[in-house]
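Both lines are quoted verbatim for reference:

——
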Amino acid sequence: MTRFYEHTIIFNYTWDQVAQGFWKKYPNPDSKHVLTEDTVCRSVYAGRLFSTRLLSKTNPIPKWAERFITSKHVHIIEESIVDPVNKVFITYTRNLGYTKVMSVTEKVVYHQSDEQPGKTVAIRSAWIDSQIRGFSRAICAFGYERFKKNCSKMVGGFNHVLANMFPLQSTVTTTHATITATSKLKDAAKNASELAKSKAVPIYATLHPNQS
């Protein structure tokens, strides 16, 4: 039984910055499980960049999985297409080892945010499947939860890399958020003060009816 997962995240960086940062996102504090990365081939066709990379990763194996998996290491193939004109970056990844036990196919689409200029939307989709008869449902459920948990690490690690590459952008974003929050607090305080004054007038008039 194939499990499907989808998650959307917004990066506070431009599409060009995200596209640049993608090639440098390893290593980072949240990707210690990524051991190696190698570019297998790269070419430009019709103004788009096509790349294929091979990554090796490791993950802790639960006790019940030891009967199916003998190594913690697995190779991942990553294929990507970068369209700089339309500003769309698409990646496809899938594991090469232990595909009968669990296969994970992932697609991520990075594009400019229409609602928030200067930011990038990433839509991550994943399909988790298993061919182990009698255990496929449980294995897919396990893979789904692990992938879901790892998504937050992926985003955290990528943001770490982007913040180091574009510190000024990170500072501007943080400053803007602080100014916005401060402005909202001031507006709330002002509204509360005006509301209190409007309520105080009739109360004062009731207590002192002969005073204008």
